[in-house]
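Subject: for your reference before the review

Hello V.,

The reviewers asked for a structural picture of the protein, and I figured it would be easier to keep everything in one thread rather than splitting it across files. Below is the amino acid sequence we used in the manuscript, unchanged from the supplementary table.
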Amino acid sequence: MAESQSHHKHRPPPCKGKLITVLSIDGGGVRGIIPGTILSFLESKLQVISYEYARIADYFDVVAGTSTGGLLATMLTAPNEKKRPLFAAQDVIDFYLENCPKIFPQGNGILSSVRNLVAAMMGPKYDGKYLHKKVKQLLKDTKLSHTLTNLIIPSFDIKLLQPVIFSSFEARLEPLKDAHVADICISTSAAPTYLPAHYFETKDDKGNTCSYDLVDGGVAANNPTLVAMSQIKKEIFLMNQDFETFRPFDYHNFIIISIGTGAAKVEKKFSAQLASKWGILQWLYNGGSTPLIDSFSHASAEIVDIHMSSIFQSLKCEKNYLRIQDETLMGQASSVDVATMENLCELLKIGNSLLQKPVSRVNLETGMFEPVEGEGTNAEALTGMAKLLSEERHRRRGTMPLS
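And here is what came back from the structure prediction:
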């Protein structure tokens, strides 16, 4: 059913339909091109199935993102001057190709490697100035409460040593939590050793202030799916009317798409034999990688996927949860900051290839992420998800029967 562009200023709440829809995007620096490619494909399918001006924000009740995933999520949900999403999914890819080399300027040869080692001891590898300027230029004065759907982004307060979850749900009710999305994006992307921590304050109309001393959200939740689900559970518990038909909580009522930024599991480039000899410098810099950060970010993402998979599989609704991840990255493609045009184009190819790989799921016996027989490719699964998302949208708008 075709719809005109003017019909999309308001997205009906979940209580008008029968599903709660969630999109989650992992952290991973320049590897954000991979989920960007996946989302571009999904958006193109929504445009074919639903209407030509379809955008990701029209179909998801919650969009969550960590680090580079937080930037992606914000670009897809922040409003432009016409109150439509700032970026189409395809435009996000162009943004990464154009800006990553300036966010992560590349050096050459042995001298660059020495500089990187010194940087690991003396301060962040990059000053973040270009990223900060670009994000503020794009997002201007947009606040969290202004997003076109519910946005959830984790960060970590290095002063209080606790996670900070920025949520549109809370921002609409509490002014001190209604931060500018530019500050949130800078904070969730401030990966230790790579980019500087970010300080900012919020203020309400009574003059009260709240201060934040933040670093990368990957410190707390590199895969923010569980953070998003926890927030939705909280809203249901607090009797948020948008979710009034979803009490009691039931996982069968969810559609979740969780997109990773890739991992280098097949390389097996570290081992206990190597790591047992490492001091702090080797944990911070080893062969172009940062083993300490690689370890906690991948561990954080994996444990969330195992948790979500175990729930959906045990409840026999595993097809409601689609995790798309590539664990076969090699060499520079597995880095978070190699922003050469050669590597960025390689990441684009990896994203497109991932669409043609079979749907995979965690084997609860082994913990391994394995292809599932009979469920087709990721592209086919996303096409099926696009159909469900489109049906749910029409259901909420009263343009198809509730059945």
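For the response letter, the relevant points are probably these. Residues 67 and 189 are 4 Å apart (CA to CA). The longest helix spans residues 291-314.

Happy to draft the paragraph if you're swamped.

O.
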